[in-house]
Amino acid sequence: MGLVGTLRDALAGIVGDANVMAADEARVHYANDQYWYAIAATGAGQPVSRPDLAVRPSRTEQVAAIVRLANEHRVPITPWGGGSGVQGAANATEGGIVVDLRGMQRVRSIDQKSLTCIVEAGLACRDFEAQLNPMGLSFTHYPASAEWATIGGSIAARGSGVLSTKYGKIEEHVLSVEWVTPTGEIVNTPNVPRHAAGPELTQLLVGAEGTFGIVTAANVKLHLLPKHRVFSVFAFANQSDGVEAGRRIMTTGLKPPVMRLYDVHAAAHSLARAVEMPLDKPTLVMMFDGEYPELVELEAQIASKLCRELNGIELPPSIGALWWDRRYVFYYPPYAPELPSIWGTIDVVADFEHIETVYTATTTAIRAACPTEYNLSLNTHFSHWYEWGSMIYARMKVPKGPDRLEDAKALHDRIIKAGVEAALEAGAVINDHHGVGMRLAPYMQAQYGDGMLALQRIKAALDPNDLFCPGKLSL
Ligand SMILES: Cc1cc2nc3c(=O)[nH]c(=O)nc-3n(C[C@H](O)[C@H](O)[C@H](O)COP(=O)(O)OP(=O)(O)OC[C@H]3O[C@@H](n4cnc5c(N)ncnc54)[C@H](O)[C@@H]3O)c2cc1C
Questions:
Q1: If 0-12 CB within 10 Å is exposed, 13-18 middle and 19+ buried, where does residue 473 land?
Q2: Where are the domains of the chain?
Q3: How, if at all, do strands 97-100 and 53-55 pair?
Q4: pTM, entire model
Q5: Ligand 1 neighbour 233 (Cβ under 6 A)
Q6: What kind of architecture, by CATH, is found in domain 104-224?
Q7: Is 144 in the pocket of ligand 1 (CB under 6 A)?
Q8: 175: helix, coil or strand?
Q9: 327 and 257 in contact (C-beta within 8 Å)?
Q10: Is the pLDDT assigned to residue 463 strictly greater than 80?
Q11: CA 20 to 30 Å from 396, out of 23, 70, 307, 467?
């Protein structure tokens, strides 16, 4: 019996025969995540993800046993959550074993007094929310991919939901993790995240994209499900005024869960389509929420006053309510992009000092990188605001790329390279919440500089056999 056969039997001994898939089945189920190139490669019959085996554990001890087995035989491991990542991180490019965490979906406990919850890594965000809402609770992490994205995948990719401006990115939701290290130990990080008991180990796992081991469960923060929501929408003749309105809202301590400033292209195309109303100016959609109606109203009124001071033109708040109702629709069929299109997002972050230069440099570079015959469209918005800056989400689409996969990839890579390098040059970081994956790995050195050596040393110490997601994050 060859190595794969030996592993298959050993894995079946750990998780049961029904929870192990051989290569023929695994290569269909785990052929690609949602990275455009991974989808295109599958479409061309050359999938980038080629696991030799896939396994679906249901307990932490099983995960640890799988990891120890992989170490014994020096076989690569790739954790898999919902497979919704858009950067290619979950693809088993070096073969080996895919560990699908969706066998671990339990809510282990809820502390109604502290508003915290221990939840297993494989539960999808939408399903978690569905369990919490009837109790008047919310996880408040609402990625557009909530249907697929798991808790573990959100932590691993350092994700963000549409309410992040008030409730925070995933790193703010996570208090501690249960972690199977790359050598198979089960570790629980300190369950109180605000401490002076040394460095914060939990955060080492956030954004590690599986390279530092497997998150099997997390203790996360919950919130009360908001009782009141108020929308406010403004158009600006000049985008800079919209950015300045956002800056004043954030720096004076207002907390809109949603604040999305669409540039003129995104307003006229994506937003106008969502709200079924013609829009021809940069448009700011805001939502305020909370327990106390007076406070929610007051926050919305003050934010609206700041917008008016910057010549914002008030639009019907019903636009915001409609946007909220339809916020996920355009990510799914029949609206989601399909082959032979090329699509992708460059989501970069910058402080207020650099944000407008980053916007101009990035969008100009993306447009310039694509020959005009390909009719590139680019819709950009600012969302996920912070007290010091904001994210720029530049969504590009080429309706039909070159026929040959290599040529289509070359065009995609050229556009991404131009956008990412321009953003870096103008003072941004390469990503806000989609992670690095295969797509941005070439830019990690430029992003981290000498810091890369520290990351590589941490990786070498934690994963001496280099089994976890080899090559990912440029580690
Ligand atoms: C239509 C659409 C909309 C999207 N909208 C958003 C959005 O609004 N916000 C956002 O942040 N992202 C969004 N994304 C991207 C994607 O959903 C996120 O990156 C998400 O966090 C990935 O979760 P997942 O469970 O699918 O992880 P996967 O794609 O399966 O894996 C992502 C990475 O995490 C690793 N991993 C997975 N689980 C674990 C674990 N338990 N332990 C250790 N490593 C693990 C994998 O190895 C891989 O490196 C969107 C994607 C799509 C397709």
A1: buried
A2: 3-102+464-469, 104-224, 228-331, 342-435
A3: parallel
A4: 0.97
A5: no
A6: 2-Layer Sandwich (3.30)
A7: yes
A8: strand
A9: no
A10: yes
A11: 307
H or E element in which residue 313 lies: strand 313-315
CATH architecture of 3-102+464-469: 2-Layer Sandwich (3.30)
Segment 313-327, tens digit of pLDDT: 999 999 999 999 998
Would the CB of 10 count as within 6 Å of ligand 1?
no
Within 8 A by CB and 6+ apart from 156, the residues are: 79, 81, 89, 205, 206, 207, 208, 209, 210, 215, 435
CA distance 220 to 40: 36
Tokens representing residue 220 in the block: 């996360």
Q: What is the CATH number of domain 342-435?
A: 3.30.300.330
Domain 228-331 top-level CATH class: alpha beta
Show the 3-state SS of 89-103.
Answer: CCCCCCCCEEEEHHH
Take atom 16 of ligand 1 and give the residue whose Cα is closest: 85
Which of the two residues, 334 and 418, has the higher pLDDT score?
418
Rounded mean pLDDT, 262-266: 97
Contact present, 347 and 393 (Cβ < 8 Å): yes
